[in-house]
Amino acid sequence: MRGEVIRRVRGGIAALVLVGLVVAPWVVDDYTTAILSRTLALALVGVSVALLTGVAGMPTLGQTAPYAAGAYACAVVGSRVSDVGVVQLAVAAAAGALLAALTVPLVVHARGVIVLMITLAIGELVVIVLGRWRSVTGGTDGLAGIPAVRPFWGLPALADDQARYLYALVVVATLVGAVLVLLRTRAGLVLRAGRDDETRLRASGHRVALHLSGAHIAAGAIAGAAGSLLVVAQQYISPADFGFDTSALLLLGVVIGGTASVGGALVGAALVIAVRDWLFGVLPGHAPLVLGALFVATVYLLPTGVNRARGRLRPPGAPALQPDQPALHEQATVAELHR
């Protein structure tokens, strides 16, 4: 009974948030609408971080790499090949998935803090490449003057901030809905079971590395699609959009929203990015310091948000932080998988 009430309350809150997002461009000014469009793009990257960190148990600081790959692929295609949104979205997702696939051998076999270090290094290397590959990326100056996108063939271009925001909202809602549906399937259950008790899942005959590889590639595709939304919102990109500060903010947002919750990660990442943009105007030059303090406070005050991503967040053989509840949850998850 109580669980049913909680589900209804959550459903009502989600509906109110969705209605608020839909009517937002008619309530706020164009500048705020443009910020909201960029926030939606980064929130979608936050969903990919939650998929890896909270669901698959692979903490990451490197989702800005497929995010950047998708953004630059979209920018190049939009400038030279096609201004159709679905084409650019597909190319961006494919670019993000391809980069993720290339880094699978480096990521899926690592554990603990090593995963964070590897993904951070991948993200930083991608930023360096973007800054030096001037013939394609424009170097540190970036790519400007990207044509406005048309959602489909025959439709007019998205010429104002309101239209670009609604396009981003539809894409984000569609992709988040697809992720939520996927996580309710057997594939999502296998990922959670591997996060909670990888040894037991291997012993039962499941190919854990294969499932983790699939999750890593899927997360790369989501981040790549988010990159195309950034291009639509800004019509300009540069390596500065994909630095370490962005990675840290995304992880902070996911921790605040709950690493095991896709919806929570979406809201948390959007909140952190919105606060960052607001702080840059209120406290010029001090926003990174404030956000850093917020990150440290979150780790200490909201430990349950971090602990939800168990398994690979702990080194092999390390004791669980809450011995009783995780053990019961692991048994329940693996048992459900074998029904």
UniProtKB/TrEMBL annotation:
Q: Where in the cell is it found?
A: Cell membrane
UniProt keyword list: Cell membrane, Membrane, Transmembrane, Transmembrane helix
Q: Which GO terms describe its cellular component?
A: plasma membrane
Transmembrane segments in this chain: where?
12-28, 40-58, 87-108, 113-133, 165-187, 208-237, 249-275, 287-306
Q: Which domain of life is it from?
A: Bacteria
- Offer an example of a GO molecular function term for this protein: branched-chain amino acid transmembrane transporter activity
Where is this protein primarily located?
Answer: membrane
Q: Which Pfam families match?
A: BPD_transp_2
Q: How does this protein sit in the membrane?
A: Multi-pass membrane protein
Protein name according to UniProt: Branched-chain amino acid ABC transporter permease
Higher taxonomy = Bacteria, Bacillati, Actinomycetota, Actinomycetes, Micromonosporales
